[in-house]
Design brief:
The N and C termini lie far apart (37 Å). The chain has strands spanning 2-6, 9-12, 17-24, 32-38, 45-51, 55-58, 66-71, 76-81, 90-97, 113-114, 118-123. Helices cover 0% and strands 51% of the residues. With 124 residues, it is mainly beta. A hairpin with a 3-residue loop joins strand 5 (45-51) and strand 6 (55-58).
């Protein structure tokens, strides 16, 4: 499966963005998905994950502000980001795997498929 993330950009603190991750080659219906981010000089970190059929998990730093969802008809996973903070600035990437268990949602090495990231910049 090939993944492509989009929707990044420049936004002021307190604003919102919605990232999209489109899958081609296979349907997202068969996969669990995750969003990760990497800020300059920092390690990749888990943001949100969705294990089929519908369990979600969020990093504590984004809980209550970010929402992961899926549109099966469009074969797209979304990350709605509200109340953005400057510390949310990073490159955001989506990942997928067909055999994830819930406890592995935050683990990057558990995902077989990754797409190129999209840059999110939050200004103060």
């Amino acid at each position: 499966v090939q993944l492509q993330a989009s929707g990044g950009g420049l936004v002021q603190a307190g604003g919102s963005l919605r990232l999209s991750c489109v899958a081609s080659g296979r349907t997202f219906r068969d996969y669990s998905t995750g969003w990760f981010r990497q800020a300059p000089g920092k390690e990749r970190e888990f943001v949100a994950g969705l294990r089929r059929p519908g369990s979600t998990r969020y990093a504590d730093s984004v809980k209550g502000r970010f929402t992961i969802s899926i549109d099966n008809a469009k074969n797209t996973v979304y990350l709605q980001m509200d109340s953005l903070k400057p510390e949310d600035t990073a490159i955001y990437s989506c990942a997928a795997d067909s055999r994830l268990i819930y406890s592995n949602l935050p683990v990057p090495s558990a995902y077989a498929y990754w797409g190129p990231g999209t840059l999110v910049t939050v200004s103060s």
